[in-house]
Amino acid sequence: MDNEGKRDSVSRRGFLGVGSAGLAAAVGVLSAGGAAAQSQTPGDRSRTDPGPANSGLDAQNADSAWPPATDSKSLIPVFKYPFSLANKRTYTGGWSREVTVREMPVSKSLAGVNMRLTAGGVRELHWHTAGEWAIMLYGAARITAIDADGKSFVADTKKYDLWFFPSGIPHSIQGLEPDGAEFMLVFDDGNFSESETVLLSDSMAHLPPEVLSRNLGITEQALRSFPRQELFIFQTAVPGSLEADQRVAAGALGKSPHDFAFKTMDMPVTKRTKGGEVRIVDSSNFKVSTTAMAMVTLHPGGLRELHWHPNASEWQYYIAGKGRMTVVATGNKARTMDFQAGDVGYVEKTLLHYVENTGDTDLVFLEVFASSIFQDISLTEWLTHTPPELVMAHLNIDRATMDAIQKEKLVVLPG
Ligand code: MN
Ligand code: MN
């Protein structure tokens, strides 16, 4: 398709939704998609975009290029940021990139850092003020920490395993064989930055040698081999067996009784319907975590039902597939945006939203909350657990329509 054709061809859903693709194509009419496809006079050129355009980005963002007619003309702030636009900090041993409130101003309560470590590559020993929730996306890594009693924790993590390091708990991450790891870190502070953490190397370089020497019980001579600058990520040898590392690190104090890691794929699915499935992990099953997650899989056509979260804002990460989300905000504002693998989305606390699979493969995404507990309120559950006469009067519907409204909270609806 040439650029002109691509930019003039509005929403695929507009065409599919109203079932008039043939007619629309025949007369060159460009409908606005969604529920209220606007009819246009043949020859009307209103919905063309003949000027300069980035056709690749437009194609990925069809609901921004030609919004559904139900979107408001005064918009809520942008709630999407692709990791593709985040600058990688590259090192021998891996890289990192981040999406914070600086990249996406709406994301005040959570920030994301995407990191890659080679086999043996280390995210150096460090800590920070924000709590760190993480999910492994590829490969395997060994994580280490000590708890508030000084007791050691060492574990190996694989794809979709989680970890959580509370504020101030020191830790490290190291890629394992055969090809290291890639993971997503989510911090419970939108202002977080990976460049603002307390690093072992950097701390040591900023202490008077006579104090450090006395504190560590080693000679000032020995301090001379310490790095002068931060390491952040560096390459070293792949670690030995997990058991050996656990034993040596525990020493006389013993291992920490706290489990800072969680095996997501070992838990039973929280909810499964014909539309897909959801795994919910919060402090009720992952005790140390004060960050909650729902991992959602939507089959083609599936819909994460209309809902909102009364207790926290939602930080999203799209792992696979394509989808779209409409967020309805206060003041009669609404906006629809499109998402695909690698994108971050954000929904402010209490705002109504859905996520729809618009691709032909499974859509997999995360809903992450800076809250110990996952909570969501389903629109249909609200409507069907309110006196029906009241709802009928609001929506101007008859009893038969009222009775037909979905009563069970399905979470994910089939296509
Ligand atoms: Mn960290
Ligand atoms: Mn949600």
Q: What topology does this entry show?
A:
Layout lengths: L2 H6 L3 H7 L2 H7 L27 H6 L1 H4 L14 E3 L6 E3 L2 E6 L11 E7 L3 E7 L4 E8 L1 E6 L5 E6 L4 E4 L5 E5 L5 E7 L10 E2 H6 L3 H8 L3 H4 L9 E3 L6 H9 L10 E2 L8 E3 L2 E6 L10 E7 L4 E6 L5 E7 L1 E8 L3 E8 L2 E5 L4 E6 L5 E7 L7 E2 H6 L3 H8 L3 H6 L7 E2 L2
Antiparallel strand pairs: 1-22, 2-3, 3-4, 4-11, 5-10, 5-12, 5-13, 6-9, 6-11, 7-8, 7-10, 9-14, 15-16, 16-17, 17-24, 18-23, 18-25, 18-26, 19-22, 19-24, 20-21, 20-23
The chain binds manganese (II) ion (2 copies).
Number of domains: 2
Spatial strand sequence of the major β-sheet = 1-22-19-24-17-16-15
Q: How many β-strand runs?
A: 26
Q: Return residue spans where pLDDT drops below 50 for at least 5 consecutive residues.
A: 1-37
The gyration radius over C-alpha positions equals 25 Å
Second-tier CATH architecture of the largest domain: Sandwich
Into which percentage range does the β-strand content fall?
25-35%
Question: Which labels suit this protein?
Answer:
415 residues, alpha+beta, Jelly Rolls, 2 domains, 7-stranded antiparallel beta sheet, binds manganese (II) ion
Can you walk through the features of this model?
The protein has 415 residues and is α+β, with helices and mostly antiparallel strands. It folds into two domains: 174 residues, Sandwich (Jelly Rolls), CATH 2.60.120; 147 residues, Jelly Rolls (Sandwich), CATH 2.60.120. It has twelve helices and 26 strands. It has a seven-stranded antiparallel sheet with strand order 1-22-19-24-17-16-15, with no helix packed on it. A seven-stranded antiparallel sheet has the order 2-3-4-11-6-9-14, with no helix packed on it. Strands 5, 7, 8, 10, 12 and 13 form a six-stranded antiparallel sheet that branches. A hairpin with a 5-residue loop joins strand 7 and strand 8. The radius of gyration is 25 Å and the shape is elongated. The two termini are 28 Å apart. The relative contact order is 0.14. The N terminus is likely disordered. Bound molecules: manganese (II) ion (2 copies). One manganese (II) ion (MN) binds next to loops. One manganese (II) ion binds next to loops.
